[in-house]
Specification:
The chain is α+β, with helices and mostly antiparallel strands. It is built from 3 helices and 6 strands. May have a role in the cell cycle.
């Protein structure tokens, strides 16, 4: 993950309705990725009161169902923000989840308890 400690703005549109647009302001890319995972976990908790197990493919499906998602990451060298796409975000979520899981066989599963 590049620029993990750079100011990051997360832009999300959950549906085709313009009033579904929202944004979040984060101190780092990692914080923004955590916010995405927390949003997905909240989505899951609304569907089930029991602890839920999920893998990265389900996070991808969730991200793909959003009307739009992108990030703007501050580049200290240029003093400008760099835009990042849904595909880039998905790759970063995968790398973050892979790094946090203790399953070397590649079947990254996460259990969320509520």
């Amino acid at each position: 993950m590049s620029s993990t400690s750079s100011h990051t703005v997360l832009l999300i549109q959950t549906s085709s309705r313009l009033d579904s647009r929202t944004w979040g302001d984060y101190e780092s890319v990692t914080d923004a990725l955590d916010a995405i995972c927390n949003m997905f976990e909240e989505f899951l908790s609304k569907k089930s009161a029991c602890p839920v197990t999920y893998d990265v493919s389900q996070v991808y499906e969730f991200l793909d169902k959003l009307s739009d998602i992108s990030m703007m990451i501050f580049n200290r060298e240029t003093g400008q923000y760099i835009g990042r796409t849904r595909a880039w975000i998905k790759q970063q979520v995968y790398e973050m989840m892979r790094g946090r899981c203790q399953h070397p066989e590649g079947g990254e599963k996460v259990i969320v308890g509520y």
